[in-house]
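2024-03-11 09:14:02 INFO queue: dequeued item DUF3180 domain-containing protein, len=171
2024-03-11 09:14:02 INFO validating residues
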Amino acid sequence: MRKLDRMNPLTSIAAAAMGMAIGLLVQFYLSGRGHAPFVPPLSLPVTLVFIAAVLLGFGIRLRHNVSKRTRAVNPFHAVRLLATARAGQIVGGLLGGFGGGLVLSLLGRSVPAPVASWLPMLLVFGGGLTLVICAMITERLCRVPPGDDKGEETDPETGPEPADQAAFRKP
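2024-03-11 09:14:37 INFO prediction written
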């Protein structure tokens, strides 16, 4: 089987660039029509941070169970957590970039926007960034430690194999 490495950080950066472009286009469309700028609800950044915390909590619990061998680890749960962490990186980049694009569109105005307009946009940017960082940490926590292979050697260049390839071999 082929080893899978960590997700390329350029994927998150590309998602953030696309989100920023979408945020700018939304604001330019609304200002061209004479409407007020789009202000995201405060529940969006709260939800992003909540998802990041839950994802990180599951990653820490998985790492604890693997390293301490307290309980048997279901390999399918580990693979699902890895897939969720990778999806979190993309979604966090996209929504964080969207919030950044919304804020960026307000910077070019001659009259500064009120705090009630730009603060939720800035919070969405921060929530997306938090989700990306927590998802990257969780993806790192889903890797099997080097000593768990029982006779098989790990490649020194790539490090321990990812959870989706190791399937947490039984002792």
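2024-03-11 09:14:37 INFO annotate: The radius of gyration is 20 Å.
2024-03-11 09:14:38 INFO item closed
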